[in-house]
Amino acid sequence: MVRRGTDRTAAAGERRAGGKGVRPARRPEVRMPPTAPHDGAPLSPDGDYDGLEFRAADFAGQDGSGARFLDCALTDCVLDDTVLRHARLLDSVITAPRGVGTDLAEATLRDVEVTGARLGGVQLHGAVLERVWIRGGKIDYPNLRRARLRDVVFEGCVLVEPDFGGARLERVEFVDCALRGADLGSATLTDVDLRGAAPLEIARGMDRLAGAVISTGQLLDLAPQLAAGLGLRVED
């Protein structure tokens, strides 16, 4: 069961986001119903998983394309080369997932909390993320090209060379989050709060920052790139 953000939560978020100029992301508030342990069977394409707990499951190399996970808890699961294309993860909690090459292309994540992820090269191109809270952990080289992110919070995590090329980001917050070498080429940003990103490193797409808010200190750090993008020479 998921309870949508209350007025109090929204007000608190507005204060965090500075009130004026940027709308805060709505965080999911996931309240898990009682879950039953998964029977340990391999994932199956188009599988239907409802109210299950997956604990320390090894899904390496398995195919769960098109599967639906509703009110599920996934804890300490291995996701090396796991195929979850077009999967739907709804009203679920994912804790300490780890793996390389996890394929979530064109998947849907809605009202999901992810904590302590250790992932590399996760494929999320064309995916839809709505009311998703990613806390802690480190994600290397996530591919979010042409993904749609709405009401997404990255908090206390490290993102290494995330590719947001052609993606649409609306009400996305980076809170105490390291953003290294981000690619924003052809991305569209609306109410994106980057003030909590430290460091904030933009490898590509400086011209796509319209619709985002940054701090004065970040502006000074990015000034050389902004000047270069404008063809502006700075000389003393």
Automatic annotation (TrEMBL):
Region called Disordered, residue ranges: 1-47
Comp. bias regions, Basic and acidic residues: 1-17
Source domain of life: Bacteria
Keywords: Repeat
InterPro entries hit by this protein: 5peptide_repeat
Protein name per UniProt: Pentapeptide repeat-containing protein
